[in-house]
Amino acid sequence: MPSNQPDRYGVIGYPVSHSRSPYIHQLFAQQTDQNIQYDLIEVPPGILKAKIQEFMEEGGKGLNITLPHKSVVATYVDDMSARAVTAGAVNTLVFRDDVLYGDNTDGTGLVTDLENNQRFRIKGAKILILGAGGAARGIIGPLLNAHACSIVIANRTFEKAIDLADRFKQLGTVTACEIGALTSEHSFNLIINATSAGLKGGAWLYPPSIVNMDALCYDLSYSEVPTPFMQWTSELGAARSIMGWGMLVEQAAESFFIWREIQPNTKPVLEQLTGKTA
Ligand code: NAP
């Protein structure tokens, strides 16, 4: 007899109470008539592996993984997608026949938001990425696969930008640039803020000359009000400055598809989340 119990999913992070993922996945489930339960699971680093195991043994079907666990979970899995290997990070776990499978949907989420929602053409674009942390690492491969012309990485700790550029140089034109060496002559088509500066405070180090009127300025961070990066780029005359809500919803949709093999319609969910019609 078929069970009426919902299939269980969740997001593990530390902290995680701010996460909008339960809301997004519940909207996807209503829309596609899927019987699922999706919970917030706060887990500190020391007991992460045991908690994932426990969730799997209790019959859970899959998990999202968020800060600060994405890189370490990549070392636990039995198998991983090529994009998770390239990123060196996992944000989606699938449990199948006791096998722990890891994937990374962050970069695909950004590419889908840029191309489908923002109507931005990645092919041929000159891209500047501010920051060289986990988020930057997850988006570089998918941006290159979408045929970006070039990617420049500028980070407060320059060595990390060099390491990232080295990691991806076989996939395309990726270079590291010192923040002080960034000039208006670079004339980027897309400027992505992949730093956590807006959340943690601290001085903003990047020069105003990087922002040009025609560049799309995209902050991976998102909030109810315009982020500091959005405000900064808008004040400098950027025609379009946006936050990462679209990436958040699109990466969730890709996880949902991996788990349920159904593609949800992201547009109404994005509208409900941001209170706007796109
Ligand atoms: P992370 O691994 O901790 O990396 C943080 C980065 O920010 C590092 O490059 C760090 O530089 C830089 N940074 C921190 N404070 C700075 C400051 N005051 N000035 C300049 N640079 C500074 O974090 P992450 O996982 O990459 O996440 C970055 C952001 O992306 C977060 O806000 C996160 O919420 C967002 N994100 C959004 C989505 C989405 O779906 N929209 C998905 C993933 C991540 P150093 O190397 O010098 O320390």
Architecture overview:
The chain is an alpha/beta fold and 278 residues long. It has helices spanning 21-32, 48-57, 70-73, 82-87, 106-117, 134-145, 158-168, 197-200, 228-235, 245-260, 266-274, and strands at residues 7-13, 36-42, 62-65, 79-80, 92-96, 99-103, 126-130, 150-154, 174-176, 190-193, 216-219, 240-243. A six-stranded mixed beta sheet has the order 2-1-3-5-6-4. Strands 9-8-7-10-11-12 form a six-stranded parallel beta sheet, sandwiched between helices. The protein is globular, with a radius of gyration of 19 Å. The protein starts with 6 loop residues before the first strand and ends with a helix. The model has no long low-confidence stretch (mean pLDDT 94).
Largest sheet: 6 strands, mixed
What is the H-and-E element order? EHEHEHEHEEHEHEHEEHEHEHH
State the shape: globular
Mean pLDDT rating: 94
Rg (C-alpha, Å): 19 Å
Spans of at least 5 consecutive residues with low confidence: none
Which class of secondary structure composition applies to the elements? alpha/beta
